[in-house]
């Protein structure tokens, strides 16, 4: 009997420590402090409780959710949408448990595009999510990097965080480590500021070919308007920040990117006979360290093959009013590229078939070093040639021989300004191929 009472007391004590009880704030809202479940067990339940209790404030008030300076293990999916006027403070670490990969493959949540899914679906209006430079999302992604073994867009491999249906909100001072797949997707959202964000999705195995970090994008926007990325640092094996379908009024500034592919507009045109756009994107004051490109634009071909995420093509629309200015390149492969050759699972050909149009693109004030004599490759589609591509003040050096790069390779470009095309692309660049 005594042992039973002791066990009962322990259980009730543990339950009390992890139950979120709202308390009143001076502003008239309520506050929830999230306490992790003891023993490193799954804290997703208490996190859900906190958002249910304090995630939506009454009119005229603000609520608060506080994660303490400790580690919270997360072993199940989170869906916290419909939030309203809430300030979230992350002082510690949210650490994802990937010991049961089968669970995540069976339960990851649809994120609304390309048949992809996510570990956490998050959203609402009037949100601040503050990490104070210390709050961390640790996806413990090495388990996934080993599991997929270089296979692209593995079905139901979860993204780290999907910000969906979110308006008038700020995410600041957050760290993302070893995301399971894409780090962050901003979808069906507008008027969102994301600043002072650090992403490191490099493998801890020490040998990159044993666990290549495929599809570990820093951030992607889809059906998103007026999104600002400011003071980001991204070290990964894929696109740093990637505005995709129906991304408008996107600003990326004052950021540094390492070892991945650089800034990527697209891929787009993946859905057959579907109209999509990218409009008014500005990227400025960017430093790229050993990335593949400073920036690039990628579309699928005009021939539909297979289904998303690893197949597609045949879409149409346009990408326009794209500004890239003040880029500092450190041993980058090429300053800028356009490719309209993205194809089913790395297949080649059909580069002249895309009806997706790329126009009104401006590059200015690019300096630093690239690894070849090719400044740019503009592999546009003959079915819808690129037009109004302007370069100015491009001052680069070949890092291998310290000469000035001279090649501007072009195919199906009309009304180029500030450079002369020196010949066609020397090889097909299928952005899908890793």
UniProtKB/TrEMBL annotation:
<dbReference type="InterPro" id="IPR011050">
    <property type="entry name" value="Pectin_lyase_fold/virulence"/>
</dbReference>
<keyword id="KW-0732">Signal</keyword>
<dbReference type="InterPro" id="IPR000743">
    <property type="entry name" value="Glyco_hydro_28"/>
</dbReference>
<dbReference type="GO" id="GO:0004650">
    <property type="term" value="F:polygalacturonase activity"/>
</dbReference>
<keyword id="KW-0325">Glycoprotein</keyword>
<keyword id="KW-0961">Cell wall biogenesis/degradation</keyword>
<comment type="similarity">
    <text>Belongs to the glycosyl hydrolase 28 family.</text>
</comment>
<keyword id="KW-0378">Hydrolase</keyword>
<dbReference type="Pfam" id="PF00295">
    <property type="entry name" value="Glyco_hydro_28"/>
</dbReference>
<dbReference type="InterPro" id="IPR012334">
    <property type="entry name" value="Pectin_lyas_fold"/>
</dbReference>
<keyword id="KW-0326">Glycosidase</keyword>
<feature type="signal peptide">
    <location>
        <begin position="1"/>
        <end position="16"/>
    </location>
</feature>
<keyword id="KW-0964">Secreted</keyword>
<dbReference type="GO" id="GO:0071555">
    <property type="term" value="P:cell wall organization"/>
</dbReference>
<protein>
    <submittedName>
        <fullName>Glycoside hydrolase family 28 protein</fullName>
    </submittedName>
</protein>
<dbReference type="GO" id="GO:0005975">
    <property type="term" value="P:carbohydrate metabolic process"/>
</dbReference>
<dbReference type="GO" id="GO:0005576">
    <property type="term" value="C:extracellular region"/>
</dbReference>
């Amino acid at each position: 009997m005594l042992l039973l009472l002791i066990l009962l007391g322990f259980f009730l004590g543990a339950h009390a420590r992890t139950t979120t009880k709202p308390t009143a704030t001076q502003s008239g809202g309520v506050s929830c402090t999230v306490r992790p479940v003891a023993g490193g067990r799954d804290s997703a339940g208490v996190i859900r409780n906190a958002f249910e209790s304090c995630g939506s404030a009454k009119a005229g008030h603000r609520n608060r959710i506080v994660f303490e300076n400790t580690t919270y293990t997360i072993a199940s999916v989170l869906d916290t949408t419909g939030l309203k006027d809430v300030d979230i403070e992350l002082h510690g670490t949210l650490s994802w448990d990937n010991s049961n990969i089968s669970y995540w493959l069976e339960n990851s949540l649809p994120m609304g595009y390309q048949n992809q899914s996510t570990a956490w679906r998050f959203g609402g209006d009037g949100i601040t999510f503050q990490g104070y430079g210390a709050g961390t999302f640790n996806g413990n992604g090495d388990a996934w990097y080993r599991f997929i073994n270089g296979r692209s867009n593995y079905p139901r491999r979860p993204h780290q965080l999907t910000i969906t249906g979110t308006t008038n909100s700020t995410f600041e001072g957050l760290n993302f480590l070893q995301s399971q797949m894409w780090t962050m997707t901003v979808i069906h959202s507008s008027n969102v500021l994301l600043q002072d964000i650090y992403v490191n999705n490099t493998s801890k195995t020490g040998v990159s070919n044993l666990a290549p970090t495929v599809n570990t994008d820093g951030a992607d926007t889809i059906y998103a308007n007026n999104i600002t990325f400011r003071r980001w640092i991204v070290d990964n094996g894929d696109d740093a920040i990637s505005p995709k379908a129906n991304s408008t009024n996107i600003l990326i500034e004052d950021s540094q990117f390492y070892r991945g592919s650089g800034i990527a507009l697209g891929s787009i045109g993946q859905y057959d006979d579907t109209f999509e756009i990218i409009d008014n994107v500005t990227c400025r004051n960017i430093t790229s360290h050993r990335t593949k490109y400073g920036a690039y634009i990628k579309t699928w071909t005009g021939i539909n093959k297979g289904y998303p995420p690893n197949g597609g093509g045949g879409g149409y629309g346009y990408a326009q009013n794209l500004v890239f200015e003040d880029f500092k390149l450190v041993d980058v492969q090429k300053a800028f590229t356009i490719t309209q050759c993205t194809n089913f699972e790395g297949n080649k050909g059909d580069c002249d078939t895309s009806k997706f149009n790329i126009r009104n693109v401006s590059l200015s004030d690019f300096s630093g070093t690239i690894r070849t004599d090719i400044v740019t490759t503009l592999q546009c589609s003959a079915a819808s040639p690129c037009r109004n591509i302007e370069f100015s003040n491009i001052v680069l050096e070949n890092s291998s021989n310290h000469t000035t790069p001279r090649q501007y390779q072009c195919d199906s470009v009309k009304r180029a300004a500030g450079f002369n095309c020196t010949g066609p692309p020397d090889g097909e660049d299928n952005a899908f191929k890793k």
